[in-house]
Amino acid sequence: MRHEPVADISATPAEVRPMTAAGNTAYLRIEHLWKAFGEFHALKDISLDINEGEFICFLGPSGCGKTTLLRAVAGLDLQTSGVVRQGGRDISTLPPSKRDYGIVFQSYALFPNLTIERNIAFGLENTKRPRAEIDARVKELLMLVGLPDQAKKYPAQLSGGQQQRIALARAIATSPGLLLLDEPLSALDAKVRVHLRHEIKGLQRKLGVTTIMVTHDQEEALSLADRIVVMNHGVIEQVGSPTEIYRHPATLFVADFIGETNKFEATVAAASVSFGAKAFRCAPHSFANGEAVVAAIRPEEVIPHGPGSRSPGAPDVVKTPENLIDVTVGEMEFLGSFWRTRLRGGELGDEILIADFSVNATRRLGLAEGGALTVELPADRLLIFPQGERHGGGN
């Protein structure tokens, strides 16, 4: 587990923080940032605007550059070139002690020899505030993070989740303009992680503090962020809301990294794309006829219709759904709220289609391994990407 130096977050208190102009001025502006380690470029021409009060997640695989970018913003590892502005002030070359932020690390980085109240008061004491004011602020923060009775304990006497709450209280003690979270939940078990992320989001909304969180956990990013910055190989692949990132991925990497995705090598034919033994209608695209592409669809977008659904059926059915194919149900994996199913045969040819069906749909249709099924691949959810795009992160 990493142990990071604790930044002095008290140097620029909130009351003297430079204010941004109302409207479209970004609170944090990153311009053409590069970071090189010898011949290796960890960051490549990164530009990003973050608005005041936003909760932003830097998301990507190990080695994609997300932590390097956070450390550049914090001044813990200065960029090779480029500019960072916070509240209109150029902080590009300032040391951490001269920047206006609080930071929480994965390893908590609490002082083991100090009580919980002294840990929280650490940054406040450096501001030379009156003792009574510091004590009142510490009590307020302990109430805020739900640990009012833990003041006299030491970090080793608290659980991991409690220690992370104390680290968060210490980071926001001086009301910094920016809160930086470096994978703060990754050392916790699954249930505590889910509970604490809801608390972090609620606290961030209450305080209105601009927040950047680094994570490799896509579910964490989707549940917490106002906007997600997806990174890969030192560049930004896409910036958007969780819904935009998930439903309208800009690249194959984003589609593949966020959630599960079926991928098929395919060929474009006008408004259709061919793979397996069939041409399928697909989402609008700008590729030329005959161009080799990758067709992608998420497992939950596959719609089950039951065997024999390829005819219009009842008289009141106006239109037969497009992209219907008959398949055979292969292996079925129970994942609690849904069944993950491998579909084979028919017009899929040698391809395998992964589909996620709800427990109710599985029961209603009587799905079982080896059974027949008709499924629909909705045209607007069948996305097309260039072949040869990056599929993974660096190291």
TrEMBL record:
Molecular-function annotations in GO: ATP binding
InterPro entries recorded: AAA+_ATPase, ABC_SmlMolc_Importer, ABC_transporter-like_ATP-bd, ABC_transporter-like_CS, AminoethylPonate_ABC_PhnT2, Mo/tungstate-bd_C_term_dom, P-loop_NTPase, Transp-assoc_OB_typ2
Domain ABC transporter: 28-258
Keywords assigned: ATP-binding, Cell inner membrane, Cell membrane, Membrane, Nucleotide-binding, Translocase, Transport
SUPFAM superfamilies (alphabetical): MOP-like, P-loop containing nucleoside triphosphate hydrolases
Signal peptide start-end: none
Family designation: Belongs to the ABC transporter superfamily.
Protein's UniProt name: 2-aminoethylphosphonate ABC transporter ATP-binding protein
Lineage: Bacteria, Pseudomonadati, Pseudomonadota, Alphaproteobacteria, Hyphomicrobiales
